[in-house]
Amino acid sequence: MLIPHDTRIALDTVVDLVNTAPESEPPSGGQPEAERSDGLADITALYDFARRHRISGVGELHEKDLRAVRDVRARFAEIFATDDSQTAASLVNTLVAAAGTTPQLSNHDGYDWHVHYFAPDASIADHLAADCGMALAFIVVAGEQERLRRCEAPDCRHAFVDLSRNRSRRYCSSRTCGNRLHVAAYRARRKEAAG
């Protein structure tokens, strides 16, 4: 699946955004969901997220921006939760329309030409809704919605986009969740064989 560079960046951003939600955090020591931390707990965390993802045009952020980004995050989580393309398309359409999408060609900060879907001076929530929403639209239009997944490890709920050639990726990370489960299965087989 050929994905343009700016779409790939937006997909990485939406995955990271969805994974900031407390329900996406893997349980640590069986913590109830209410005790898990929110990766966007405050304005500082939102600034950090914007800097980490090189979101352009972010000015001064306020509590209303944090609430709006959390709302956008919840809508993106709904898209990852559905396996129905009609529902996904409706959710994407609603997000993108509410963001006041204004496609423009841009080449800034050392990036070659790419499309910004957000209006000039858009809020960070509208910026994320438009750019990331259009990246998810690309996946739905390509008939590849099944690539929007949640990790299959029983103690992990992280979202990811399966960009493997044969759509076979099951874990958010083969180095962490995948390896941990494979080692556990190996030990269980050895214990069974020995016992």
Structure description:
- There is one protein chain.
- This protein has a single domain, classed as Jann2411-like fold (Orthogonal Bundle), CATH 1.10.3300.
- A hairpin with a 7-residue loop joins strand 1 and strand 2.
- A two-stranded antiparallel ribbon has the order 1-2. Strands 3-4 form a two-stranded antiparallel sheet.
- The chain is mostly helical and 195 residues long.
What order do the helices and strands come in, and which of them pair?
Elements: H1 5-18, H2 43-52, H3 63-81, H4 85-98, E1 104-106, E2 114-116, H5 124-141, E3 148-150, E4 159-161, H6 174-194
Antiparallel strand pairs: 1-2, 3-4
Helix pairs in contact: 1-5, 3-4, 3-5, 4-5
Question: What keywords describe this structure?
Answer:
two-stranded antiparallel ribbon; single chain; 6 helices; two-stranded antiparallel sheet; Jann2411-like fold; 6% strand; 195 residues; mainly alpha
Model regions low in confidence, pLDDT < 50 over at least 5 residues: 27-34
Order of helices and strands: HHHHEEHEEH
CATH architecture: Orthogonal Bundle
Per CATH, what is the topology? Answer: Jann2411-like fold
* Strand order, sheet with most strands: 1-2
The description of the largest β-sheet is: 2 strands, antiparallel
Distance between the termini: 46 Å
Please tell me how large the radius of gyration is.
18 Å
User: Number of helical segments?
Assistant: 6
Mean pLDDT across the residues is 86
Number of strands: 4
| Tally of structural domains | 1
Share of residues in helices = 40-55%
Query: Beta fraction of the residues?
Result: 5-15%
Structural class: mainly alpha
Shape category: globular
CATH class: Mainly Alpha
The CATH homology group name: Jann2411-like domain
